[in-house]
Amino acid sequence: MFNRPARLETQAPEPAIPLAEPVIGGNEWAYVKECLDSGWVSTAGAFVGRFEAEFAKYLGSEHAVAAASGTAALHVALLAAGVRPDDEVLMPSFTFIAPANAVRYAGAWPVFVDAEPRAWQMDVALTADFLTRQCRWSGGALRNPRSGRRIGAILAVHVLGHPVDLDPLLEVAEKYDIPLIEDAAESLGATYGGRYAGRFGRLACFSFNGNKVMTTGGGGMVATDDAALAERVRYLATTAKDDADEGIHGQVGFNYRLTNIQAAMGCAQLERLEEFLAAKRRIAARYAEGLAGLPGLTLMPEEPWAKSAFWLYSIRIDPAQAPCDSRELRARLSAAGIASRHFWQPLHLSPAHAGAEFLGGGVAERLHGEVLSLPCSAGLSEAAQARVIAALRAGLAS
Ligand SMILES: Cc1ncc(COP(=O)(O)O)c(C=O)c1O
C-alpha cells in the first residue's frame, strides 16, 4: 500500500449540471470549415439558401426565410403581417420578453393575456372573449374600446415547448381578419393535433439561440406558405434593397440576415433535430417517472391534443403542499451543483412594458412563483439526470 496524497482522499466534486447546453457533434465542423475554406462567410452563401430550403421541408411550409435571431424574425414578421405603429397585439404575459419587445420595435403595443393553469399557455378563452365581446368594429377595423387602437395581430407564443390551443384563436382571428403569428421559438418540433407548431399562423417564427432545441449559435427563421409575405420578410430583413447594382433602398429596412457560417451550423443541427427531440422526450419521461408522487410537485403538462417539444423541462412547486417553495428548492439544487431556473416575470409586471393592458389575472404570477426549469440538454446522461432526480427528492423530503 502507498500513502495517497491527502487531496485525493477527499472525493472529487461532481461536475456541475447545466440547464440546457447545445449538442454539437455531427457535421457542424465540416460544414463550417467548408464556409471558411470557400471564403463565403457573410450573408450571401450557399448554406443560407440550403438551410432555408431544408428547414421549410422539415416543417412542411412553402417558404422559410432565415434571420439573425428569433427576435429579428418576429420584428419583420409583425411588419410583414401589416402591424402598424400604434396598433395593439394580443400576446401572453407568461413568456420570455423577446416577442413583446418585437411588438414595440414595430411601434405597436402589447396587450398581455394571462396564462391558463393547465398547460401554462396563453388563455385563449380570455383572448376570444376580449375580441368578440369587448372590442368594437369601427373605421374598418376591430378596436380596443379603452384605447381606441386597432387590433393589429395575435401573437401566439408556444411557451416552453408546448403548443397553444390554436383552434379557438384561429377561429376568432379568421372571424375578424386579424393575422395570427406564431412564436414557435421554444417549440420547434412540437405538434398541435398532429401538425407542427409553426404551420398554423400566417407567419411563424423560430429561434436558434444556443439554449434552443437546435442552435446556430444565434439565429432565427420565419416560415410561411404565402410567397408575398416571404418576399416581404426577405426584403425587410435585407435592408429593403430595391436595386442592388445601383444601391437603391425603397425604405428603412434592417440588416437581419443570418450568416453563411451560422446557416452551415443550422444545416448540421437540422440533420439531428429528430434525435434531439427524441432525447428531450426520454428526459421528460424519466422526470415523470422519477418525480411521481412528490408532495406539491406538478410535472410538466402535456395536453392530449399536443406533443410537446419539452424544450425546457419544468416542474411546478405548490408551496402550500411542498416542504419548501421553488426558490428554496432552487437553492438546494444549486448547492448540489445543479442548475435550474425560474420563468419569467409576467410581462404585465415588467418595467420594460409598464402601462400595457393586461387581461385576466393571477395565473402568470403564480407560475412565476412556482415554476422551476430543470436540466434537460439533449445530451444529458441518464446518470446526470438520476443525480438531478435524487437531489429533487432529497430537496422535497424535508
Ligand atoms: C418565446 C421566445 N421568442 C423569441 C425569442 C427570441 O429569440 P432570440 O434569442 O433568437 O432572439 C426567444 C428566446 O430566445 C423565446 O424564448
Describe it:
The chain has two domains: 28-270, Type I PLP-dependent aspartate aminotransferase-like (Major domain) (Aspartate Aminotransferase, domain 2, 3-Layer(aba) Sandwich), CATH 3.40.640.10; 273-395, Aspartate Aminotransferase, domain 1. The chain is globular. Strand 2 (88-92), helix 5 and strand 3 form a beta-alpha-beta unit. The strands form five sheets. Strands 1-11-10-7-6-2-3-18 form an eight-stranded mixed beta sheet, with helices on both faces. The protein has a four-stranded antiparallel beta sheet with strand order 14-16-19-17. Strands 9-8-15 form a three-stranded antiparallel beta sheet, with no helix packed on it. The protein is α/β, with parallel strands linked by helices and 398 residues long. It has 13 helices and 19 strands. Helices cover 35% and strands 17% of the residues. The model is unreliable at 1-9 (pLDDT under 50). The longest helix is centred in the last third of the chain and has 18 residues, at 273-290. Bound molecules: pyridoxal-5'-phosphate (PLP).
Q: What are the key terms here?
A:
Aspartate Aminotransferase, domain 2; disordered N terminus; Aspartate Aminotransferase, domain 1; single chain; 35% helix; 13 helices; alpha/beta; 398 residues; binds pyridoxal-5'-phosphate; eight-stranded mixed β-sheet; four-stranded antiparallel β-sheet
For the record, the count of structural domains works out to: 2
The CATH C-level name of the largest domain is Alpha Beta
- CATH fold descriptor of the largest domain: Aspartate Aminotransferase, domain 2
The number of distinct β-strands equals 19
Helix content: 25-40%
How would you characterize the largest beta sheet?
Answer: 8 strands, mixed
**Helix count, DSSP H or I runs of 4 or more residues:** 13
Do you know the CATH architecture of the largest domain?
A: 3-Layer(aba) Sandwich
**Radius of gyration over C-alpha positions, nearest whole angstrom:** 22 Å
Which secondary-structure class do the elements indicate? alpha/beta
Largest sheet strand order: 1-11-10-7-6-2-3-18
What's the CATH H-level superfamily name of the largest domain?
A: Type I PLP-dependent aspartate aminotransferase-like (Major domain)
